[in-house]
Predict the 3D structure of the following.
Amino acid sequence: MKISKLIYLMLFCGFMGCSESSGEQAPEGMVYFAGGRVTIGSNEGGMNEYPEHKASVNAFYLDSKPVTVREFREFVEATGYETQAEKFENSAVFDIKIGQWKLVKGANWKRPLSKNGPKAKPDHPVTQVSWNDAKAYCQWAGRRLPTEEEWEYAARNGGRTSDDRYSWGNQLVSDEGYQANVWQGHFPESVRVEDGYLYTSPVGSFGKTKAGLSDMGGNVWEWVATTYRLYEGNPKDVEKNENRKVIRGGSFLCDSTVCHGYRVSARSFNTSESATFHMGFRTAKSID
């Protein structure tokens, strides 16, 4: 009896983990992951990454890139949606000149630095969006936010590169140059902008991973669906707080000597109503 390619992938990838196409057409701009087992976390990273453990994910689709300003504008124009930063009339911006975070009046997804600052560029990841804003976009688009297990599974190229430090390999700088938009210098005292971008960069500027994803490290932190808590088995494990949501991937502010947030196992969190100029998101889609 012949086994179809899809059934073979479901059986094989359930044990091994892979990201080969299912045979059906993936939604435009998304990458198919067959699901399987993957190593999550790190025993050498920060306390919130401990302990390293195995997790299982079902097949899913994930955006190949973060949601852009252009795409978010389409959502706003179609629905009249007002972000939480717009309602609050201020949002969080890190002032690089003085090395401090500030609540800046008028900063929102249209002008991420301030009401008088430059307009957000259409091909850059949208920022100054809260977890609640990201969820609203997903509902409009017929998508959802990925879980943090799905996000890390995808960052590890469908479980195939579980030992790599980054989604693209083990080196931040290759013969081709920087592999991600991150902080060069010592945060926050000095920045050299060797990668060409002080703030966000156009999505896809630093190439794609083996799985076909861009910006899975650096550029902007990405909201995921998961409520934050320390992993089970962590000696400092505490009860989760439903208003704290996980962010993944690091950003252009990440310095390896301070946060090193662009590693595949790195994680942090923010409250669901918070918006900053270095946080965005990408969407996922379940497969029946």
User: Anything to note?
Assistant: The helical segments are 5-16, 69-79, 84-88, 131-141, 148-155. Residues 1-23 have pLDDT under 50 and may be disordered. The first strand starts at residue 30 and ends at 33. The chain has one domain: 65-286.
